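Re: beginner question about structure tokens

> Can someone show what the tokenized structure looks like for a real chain? I only ever see the sequence side.

Sure, here's an example I had lying around. Input first:
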Amino acid sequence: MNNERINQYLVLPEAGQRKDTKLAVEYSEEQIAEYVANGYVVVGNDDFNKLIGNAGGEYLIADDGSVYPKPAPTDAELLAAAKPAKIAELKAVRDSKEVEPITYNGNSYDYDDKARERISAAIIALDVQGADASIDWTTADNQDVKVTADDLRCVIAMVAQRSNALHVAYRAAKDKVEAATTVAEVEAVTLDV
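And the corresponding structure tokens:
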């Protein structure tokens, strides 16, 4: 045990981070000198606490062992982070709008995964029963209406039109995000349908 090195650490810096850390107290002066010759630096307790996040902020370590506050991100870094986040947000909005209830013939129809399966099954069943066949259908707002296979096909057709409009709007919004030169421009983009 090297009592001269209590509360000191051997840190190997790499790109502002700690690649490796050792307790200096566990090594002789000769071993410490060898670590220092191989790129390690000796860091005191206060600076080490900054590096491990116990000093109320984010800090980096330079190759010479200087510990410094992490600089604020540049405008370019903020923009680079904002673009993919906004694109993901736009995609999520598009996807959620695709499964919202759709209105056909004055009635609102669910169109989530379960509803799509039920609509497809009902179309098949009605086709088997003949052109004039109808069934009672519970709408998204809990109204019971009589529908035919053609009614349900029209619901699907309206959903397809809405889906196409959403995808066109998403692509246009995504293009605006990719062309944006500031974070404010990115944040101003919305999905306009």
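Each token stands for a local structural state, so reading them left to right follows the chain. The helical segments are 29-37, 45-51, 75-98, 113-129, 149-179, 183-188.
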